[in-house]
Amino acid sequence: MRQILAVAAGLVVLAASACSAPTPPRSAAPSPTPTGLATLPAPTGAHPVGTTALYLKDTSRPDPWDLDVDARELKVTLWYPTKQRDGQRAPYMTPKESGLAMRPYGIAGVPDDTLSKTRTNAIKDAKPAGRKLPLVVLSPGFTKPMSTLTSLAEDLASRGYVVAGIDHTYESYATTLSDGRVAECLACDSDTDPGFGPGVVAGRAADVSFVLDQLPSKWDGSGVIDRSRIAMAGQSIGGASTMAAMLKDSRVRVGIDMDGTTYARIPKSGFSRPFMFMGSPQHTPGGRDTSWDRDWKLLTGWKRWIVLAGAEHQSFTDGPLMAGTLGIQPAYGVLPAARAAELTRTYVTAFLDQHLKSQRQPLLDKPSSRYPEVKFCPATCGQS
Length: 384
Known about the structure:
This protein is α/β, with parallel strands linked by helices and 384 residues long. The chain is 20% helix and 20% strand. It is built from six helices and 14 strands.
């Protein structure tokens, strides 16, 4: 059941399955006054970060949501290392996207364009730097634009990765396309239909393969990418889509599911590529969502299942960082926004460094006193 947990990057939080009608917010409440415009945390790596957008059209298939369109259009945002330190900061989203993202949740007393004023760290259209860099594909949660994973994307780029974030058109409240049209969420009317989850992840897997096909010819900076080192990570149904994409496309070598109920079925013979589940407490073994228990048994290669104590569904996104800006007071006991961002960045980067850069990460072997919120499942889940 989709649960709105009211801390939003203009979207408020959606729980793992993201497939049924929203219920009222229960884990946060409006604060008396917004605290001002949000600033994303600075990247922790050594490199300045550049970003640019690509607009791709897949004429080999119709759009799955707009039946009047015979080609699938996608917006892909790229983040990457650059040598350029000065220049125009990239916008977090447009004013119109901000208004559309906030509208479904009735956030009163906050200007519609508030989220568009969020301060990012990446330089717009800066020249890429580096060579043979690993590529990480990111996929956001249902109804969320790719911008809600910007903090993670910027940090990965600063650490020597190229990041390709996909806006899955018509699955978000707002995606601005190449001609300026803003595609709204046509899929939102279908999220209670039978087979919705499996259909979404299958479509997103096709989006990922198409983007991997197109990057070499459509992005002038693609020469910096090492196409033998590709990972994918996603939040919510974007995390579920990671498994679906890996099953479909062998180019994706490793994957991370951040708090997403999985739908793509792993063959009984098992799945041997490295994979990490990273979740909130609802994803402890034997919990409400049993999909991870099912899949864990079929993962035959390197694998980890970690749970962040105090995390909510949106703790793996920029959502909590926007709470003060939107005048929302997080519930007592919820993982603080800055700490959630630090944990997400730290463990995602450790996984990618180990598997794409061959840099062994002891952090992934056992619990750390530096990060006591992180529980390793099934061994330490449920321990205080």
